[in-house]
Amino acid sequence: MLTPKMEAELNEQVNKEMYSAYLYMAMSAHCEGLGLKGFTNWFMIQYHEEMYHAMKMYEYIHSQGGTVTLKAINEPPTDFESPLDMFKKTLAHEQFVTQSINNLMDTAIAEKDHATQIFLQWYVTEQVEEEENDNDIITQLEMVKDHPHALLMLDRELSGRQANVPLDFSKGVGGDDEGGD
Ligand code: FEO
Fold it and tell me: Ligand 1 mean position to 110 CA, how many Å?
């Protein structure tokens, strides 16, 4: 069972995860326009990861007898200066999401909601991985600087990223803790 405060904040988080998906889809579209197939792929995989994060929380709210209330998703930016700019914005966004998950955990503790604390631990771990991935790619992009050949090599590397979350939610995502990086 969720308290009204916990339920409201989990619903807000569903919206933030959906916005995250939208943001990375916008970045994927921008990379497509640049002809960077690997970056396009990386951001589209990230879109799928975020949709999984949203659906996992959506199902949790239902599993606790709560009500899912969907809100409008904000419009993401469409203009980016460079791949480095996109990854810096990605890291900043993930740091915002990490703070949001920490706030949710604080609420779960204050409300003495042990089940939600356990549920949120998965997201705490996930945020560590997400920030680490972004920092790694930022480091590589800072080394690439203005060298097109190096950028194409990194693009080729990123084309190998594969989804390790379910892409079909028609049967739900409940109990599947494989959701990855
Ligand atoms: Fe769902 Fe990238 O945090």
Answer: 24
- Lowest-pLDDT range, 17-21, 57-61, 142-146, 152-156? 142-146
CB-ligand 1 contact for 50 (6 Å cutoff): yes
Atom of ligand 1 nearest to the CA of 54: 1
Cα of 33 to ligand 1 centre, how many Å?
Answer: 24
Q: Is 80 exposed, middle or buried (0-12, 13-18, 19+ CB in 10 A)?
A: middle
Distance between CA atoms of residues 161 and 41, nearest Å: 7
Assess if CATH 1.20.1260.10 describes domain 4-158.
yes
**Tens digits of per-residue pLDDT, 140-176?**
999 998 899 999 999 999 999 999 898 988 888 875 5
Q: How far is the CA of 147 from the centre of ligand 1 (A)?
A: 30
Q: pLDDT digit string (tens) for 93-125? A: 999 999 999 999 999 999 999 999 999 999 999
SS3 25: helix
Q: Output phi, psi for 116, to 5 deg.
A: -70, -30
- Per-domain residue ranges for the chain? 4-158
Any atom of ligand 1 within 6 Å of the Cβ of 130: yes
The residue type at 122: W
Ligand 1 contacts CB of residue 134 (under 6 A) = no
pTM score: 0.94
Taking 70 as the threshold, does the pLDDT of residue 180 lie above it? no
